[in-house]
Amino acid sequence: MAFLEPFLLWGALAVVIPVIIHFWHQKKGKPLAWAATQWLVEKNQQQQRGLKLDNILLLILRCLLLILLAVLLSQPVLNSLKSKADSQPIHLVQPNALVSTNFRFELEEASKRGEKLYWINETAEPVDKLTELPERKSVTPLLLQAAIDKLRRENTEVHLYLLNNESLATVPSIYVPPRFQLHTLVDSTRPPRAYLVTKGSQKLFVGQGGKLTNSAVFEPAQKFQAAPAHSGQLRVLLDYRSQREQQTVEAALKALTDVYGLDFLIDHNQTGTTPYEWVLTDRISSNPSPQTLYIVSGKPGYPMAPNICYTGNALTAQTDERVANGQLPEWLGEQLIQHYGLQVSSLPLSQQELKSLFVVANRPDRKPQTLVHNVIVLLFVVLLIGERWMALTKNA
């Protein structure tokens, strides 16, 4: 038997408390003089020595209750009932031609064994053919985490096939099940960088040293894509119920325009059917577009798609630290850069960095075994009823 929270077993040491209380109540009392004592005849007086154990069964019940409570809180799991042979391997593959080609033999062998293969995307799409990649090929750590959480089941063994680069480390940790294997590949080629075309045919790109640059010409030492990720105006919808929040976000967008020359066409009410490149709102659409970047404020949530970002707080100086510190324009710019893939992420992580990034979750794939949990709870209730009945009967 294993325990999900083993440190709580130290609570069983509290068993000494009822023992101390029991012996405290068994201390010998002081004799009191009483006028009628002289008329009483001493009979069979015998000096008692040592400790007197009265109500020993009640003491045992109280000790067992504390031990059972500590075991219950530590969440016991009967791992011996599950063998590794019963594990269900699933394979999550980054939709990248280099990854699918390099690990083609392993993936085909897994498919022959009847193991499930999935692309890492919004829907965790099953892999039909390794040569037919899905339409959306970008993978973010949040999207990877969502795919793992969606597919993991009890006793699941997860295999991840990924490109090893710095983009994986944009989150503190990626949580994986206990049975997990990582297969990574370093892309030795340096892919061309993405860029945006802004006002006056200026080019916005991440240059040397990771600095966001707005220039008429590219840096000669860098290689860029043939076509921009976006050209011209960025259609933006500001849809906030709070006038103060709307003005705060609009001022942050104006700051991005002044510094980087981004050309925003801002609407305060949705008009027509033309899609927006950027939607900043306090309420998410029921049918969000996968090509649009959404910044949803005031609603804590888990981004099930890489183009949806929840801030948790309203974007005002009173409720959000980024606004109070003047960092809102910078943060919004980072979201836009990430959405269009401008960031440079070709450097690989070391093995130590990968080991620190992928963390085995402390929680089980499902709740602890119901049978074990229910048996302990039932036994605890029975002992508690017995202890209360015995304590009331003996007035102890």
TrEMBL record:
Keywords, sorted A to Z: Membrane, Transmembrane, Transmembrane helix
Domain Aerotolerance regulator N-terminal: 1-76
Coiled-coil region list: none
Protein name stated in the entry: Aerotolerance regulator N-terminal domain-containing protein
The keyword RNA-binding is annotated on this UniProt entry: no
Keyword Membrane: yes
InterPro entries hit by this protein: Aerotolerance_reg_N (IPR024163), Double_TM_dom (IPR011933)
Superkingdom of origin: Bacteria
Transmembrane segments: 6-24, 56-78, 371-391
Pfam families: BatA
